[in-house]
Amino acid sequence: MRETVRLKNTGLRGVTVADSAISFIDGEKGILIYRGYRIEDLVAYSTFMETSYLLLFGTLPTPEQLDSFTQQVKAMRTLPGHVIDSMRLWPKNARPMDILQASVPLLSMTKDREEGDEPDRRICLECSIGLIARLPSLVAVWHRIRTGQPILEPDPNLDHAANFLWMLQGKKPDTATAGDLDICLILHADHTFNASTFAAREVVSTRASLYAGVSAALGALSGNLHGGANTKVMEMLIKLENEPDIEQWVAGQLRRGDRLMGMGHAIYKTGDPRVAFLKTMGKRLEKQTVTKWAAISERIEKAALALFAEQGKTTILPNVDFASAPVYHLMGIPTDLMTPVFAISRVAGWCAHIIEEQFADAQGKPALYRPQAQYVGEYCGPMGCEYVPMKTR
Fold first, then answer.
1. In CATH, what number is assigned to the domain containing residue 145?
2. Range of the domain at 196
3. Catalytic residues
4. Are 320 and 188 spatial neighbours (Cβ–Cβ below 8 Å)?
5. Which of 202, 230, 256, 263 can bridge 321 by disulfide, Cβ–Cβ 3.0-4.6 Å?
6. Binning pLDDT at 50, 70 and 90, where does residue 291 land?
7. What's the pLDDT band for 327 if we cut at 50, 70, 90?
């Protein structure tokens, strides 16, 4: 019998698998950079359209380039008729992330430019612009269908974030709220080799289409340990809205070994730089309502950090999901649409990574991902086990 030392499942954390020029994280210093630019500067000076251009093309656009890019996005917001017809047939209680993932292959059936067997950078960029344009429409149209409301046409006079809120809610958002959502989209646009981005890159390394890569990324994002966490955070806040002793509830969660959604991050050890912007945004939005999400969140955070400190776990801090959930809620976005809103933003990063993966070298030949597993199953020698026929078992 052979001796097998079992490997620890680390989820590939700390394992470098490819070069990338798209984004960078310094988890010890709390730094996030897109294409060389600090997230703080992009939030202060950029827009989601400009940030999307930066991620896809690698440089900041000129005014003319940004205008052309924005007009391309606006022109592609309308969904093909067969997509809407299909959505009308789907169960109204289906999970929105499942709807979104199922819709992307439908878009691939009527691409504006047909992808060939060999990847073409120009066509991939055009398809990317189409997905950035249409994912918000998919989310909004599905919500209108499932709630029995008339579908609204995109408004070419509205920018990306404002148009999504219009198509979703049926009313034009105020400038401040639309601006806040645009910042949220910038903050979520890319985050190096997270689970969904890695899924997209792995899939297209087989020379599958950009649409296949984005569909795979959506599947990965839907999980509660990735994009689905913001929904779970909001469910937790709603549950605790009338809880008199939040601190005791937090202590009970941690004592039982249950996960406290929105706390901790695989990379950031001294703080997620996106959280501060979202907290400020949440407090500003809350002034317009009578809710108390900021206060509840603050009590959860303080209680959790105190207990973590007692255990010596000083690197477990609030993450972007903890801070973004109440912001989306205050914008009137339904809880189960919070992860799809994450996808509306992250699709820009996914497409940038897919294109980078497809054209990893001058010949456009991606390295097929093929990791190796250590076999720990039955072992009867190098020739395998003896097969015993059914009648003699």
1. 1.10.580.10
2. 23-224+337-358
3. 265, 321
4. yes
5. 230
6. low
7. very high
